[in-house]
Amino acid sequence: MRMLLLATTNQHKIDEYRAIFSAMPFQLRSLRDFRRETDVEETGSTFAENAELKALTYAKLAGHLSLADDSGLEIDALNGAPGIYSARFAGRDTSYEERFRLILAQLKDVPLEQRTARFVCAITIAEPSGYHRTVEGVIEGVIADAPRGENGFGYDPIFFVPELGRTTAELPPEQKNRISHRGRAAQLAAALLRDWPDKV
C-alpha cells in the first residue's frame, strides 16, 4: 500500500482527511509522524498557488506522494478578506474568538443578505518528481451575527449556511465532511488518487 503524506500538523485537518480518505488504498501519514516540519513560506497570491508550494516542497523533502491544502474564508463585504491570510488574520497568535469579534465589528452595519461569504479550499497532490495536480472546493454562505456551534474549527462558528439553517460548527462531522469546502475538494482529490499514474 502506497504512503500518502498529509502535509500538515493541524490535527483537525488530519482527522478530517483520515475520515474522508478512509476507503482509499493509501497509508496515510502526516507531518506529525515525521516529527519534523519545514516552514514553507506561503508566497502565492491564491489558495492554489500556496497549496502547490507546500505539496511540492514536502513531496521532495519526504520522498513520498504528498497532499497539501490551503484554505480560508472570503467575505464579500470586506473585499474578499481575510482570504489567503485567514490563518494569519490579526496575527498568528490571535485567538479565533478575537478574530470573530473583529470581523463582526466590521460587519455590524451590514445586513445579513449582504454578508455573503465562502470557504475555499485548494488541494494539491504532488510527486517527488514534481508532477502535481490541483483541485478546489467551495461552499457558499453568509457571516452569522454571532458565533454558534461547538463542532469544526477555525471560522466555522460564524459561517452560516442558509439552506441548512446552521453554521458549519453546528453540523455533525460526517455531514460537514460531505459538504464543506475541504470535503468537496477532498472528494475531487480522491478521484485524482483513484486514477493516479504509477510512475510520473
Average pLDDT score: 93
Radius of gyration: 17 Å
Number of strands: 7
Helix content: 25-40%
Which secondary-structure class do the elements indicate?
alpha/beta
Q: How are the strands of the biggest sheet laid out side by side?
A: 2-1-3-4-5-6-7
Number of helices: 6
Largest sheet: 7 strands, mixed
CATH class: Alpha Beta
Give the CATH architecture: Alpha-Beta Complex
Which overall shape is indicated by the principal axes computed on the Cα atoms? globular
User: Strand fraction band?
Assistant: 15-25%
CATH topology descriptor = Maf protein
Order of SSEs: EHEHHEHEEEEHH
Could you give a quick summary of the protein structure above?
Helix content is 31%, strand content 24%. With 200 residues, the chain is of the alpha/beta class.
Note the main attributes of this structure.
6 helices, Maf protein, 200 residues, alpha/beta, single chain, 7-stranded mixed sheet
Structure characterization notes:
The protein has helices at residues 11-20, 31-34, 47-62, 96-106, 173-179, 181-194, and strands at residues 2-6, 26-30, 66-75, 116-126, 132-143, 159-161, 166-167. It has a seven-stranded mixed β-sheet with strand order 2-1-3-4-5-6-7. It is an alpha/beta fold. β1, α1 and β2 form a beta-alpha-beta unit. It is built from six helices and seven strands; from the N terminus they run βαβααβαββββαα. α5 packs across α6.
Summarize the SSE layout with pairings.
Layout (H helix, E strand, L loop, with lengths): L1 E5 L4 H10 L5 E5 H4 L12 H16 L3 E10 L20 H11 L9 E11 L5 E12 L15 E3 L4 E2 L5 H7 L1 H14 L6
Helix pairs in contact: 5-6
